[in-house]
Design goal:
The radius of gyration is 16 Å and the shape is elongated. It is α/β, with parallel strands linked by helices. α2 links the parallel β1 and β2. The longest helix is centred in the N-terminal third of the chain and has 12 residues. Strands 1-2-3 form a 3-stranded parallel β-sheet, with no helix packed on it.
Length: 130
């Protein structure tokens, strides 16, 4: 919260991304607490759609985040090839591909959206070059 509130002009912020501070889902209780402060009427009253949590795809924590919030989620892939991804970010275990993509099945399909059954969950691919 200090990083949000101490920024000059913090009242003009439009979005927040949890990333670059280690794996946010390693400290999920604190992330959930700060999301509550950002989104609660007694807090800053932001829409959860203004918040993105970037993760390597820790499945248990990711499922809890998706169950308890309506924030956006970005999965850090770094490579579509499992062996290359493992060399770039040695996370393995439950965050290895393809299981990290399982939560994507929670997203509404294009057919659901056309049928008016859009639950507000949307998936998109966002490559990061660096």
């Amino acid at each position: 919260m200090n990083q949000v509130l101490s920024v000059p002009g913090s009242g003009d912020l439009t979005n927040v991304v949890y990333m670059g501070m280690g794996e946010p889902l390693d400290n999920l209780p604190a992330v959930l607490d700060s999301i509550e402060v950002l989104t609660a009427k007694w807090g800053l009253g932001w829409s959860p759609k203004r918040i993105t949590v970037s993760s390597i795809g820790k499945l248990c924590e990711l499922k809890r985040l998706l169950d308890e919030t309506k924030v956006h989620v970005a999965i850090s892939i770094h490579s579509p090839f499992p062996s290359e991804r493992a060399s770039l970010m040695p996370v393995g275990g439950e965050a290895a591909l393809p299981p990290a993509f399982l939560p994507i099945t929670l997203c509404a399909s294009p057919e659901d959206a056309q049928a008016g059954e859009d639950d507000g969950l949307h998936c998109r691919e966002e490559p990061v070059l660096g």
